[in-house]
């Protein structure tokens, strides 16, 4: 039944893609390469990782996911103009190497006027971020901001400690937006303590779309409302849910729709952004290389249609909000 629903969504909303008269901004895209000399700790033989874990790539776990691959995946759904690169959990000591690599890609794309192209970088912060007073890594932050495509940070391991709050406040003073990959309740608590710093909540704030207990939704809903009441939470990303499903046939479009509609209701079209979450939308053991991007894009367009979203609403969600928040070039 779920497969039938997904198929209907795909066939009924595909025509809506053709109607878009603007280039889409995908606010959350990952790219990696096994030849850029960056050590991705997770892209190794899964049995040799500590702790052992699943690998997103087909054996032998050598990952190459490029903008060209992204285009091949996305072009049947959206004409994507720009993407926001989101850090990919590289070795923390190589945090700036990743930035340099993506900055170079963005500059080459800009010169060649190719599309889609990297329009902004959300970087991993320097290793001392949130672990020491900001003045102890000021030079590293200054160096980071020499790379013109860097407009945001994505810190890991946030729990709201005093040093972390100081770090987030300092980042806000520098004009950097903070991506939060966490439960929406914690996101709201952290954002409330940093009123001058702008935040974006990724992956629908940890929406448990595969859960069967209505209390899961109600708990998430309460956190969503708390976050939406904070004006420095500039956007909640619509996406990041597809890798939870074991197969396209398992996707529960009704459950996804429930969460997405609630996010739009709370935040309004002026404060939601589209995320394809590629390439992570396209893997998730036991289905490596499963194509979920178009399934999600079709669902989202069908949800817009069901909500009777105007052309302006859709353009805000799929383009304008991300352009503004990430200062996309």
Task: Quickly describe the structure.
The chain is of the alpha/beta class and 329 residues long.
Description:
With 329 residues, the protein is an alpha/beta fold. Helices cover 40% and strands 12% of the residues. It contains 10 helices and 8 strands. The protein has helices at residues 2-19, 67-74, 95-112, 138-144, 162-173, 184-192, 214-228, 253-267, 293-306, 311-325, and strands spanning 24-29, 80-86, 117-123, 150-153, 177-180, 199-201, 233-238, 272-274. The protein has an 8-stranded parallel beta sheet with strand order 1-2-3-4-5-6-7-8. The radius of gyration is 19 Å and the shape is globular. The N and C termini lie far apart (43 Å). Mean pLDDT is 88; it is low at 1-15.
Which short descriptors sum up this protein?
single chain; 329 residues; alpha/beta; eight-stranded parallel beta sheet; 10 helices; 12% strand; globular
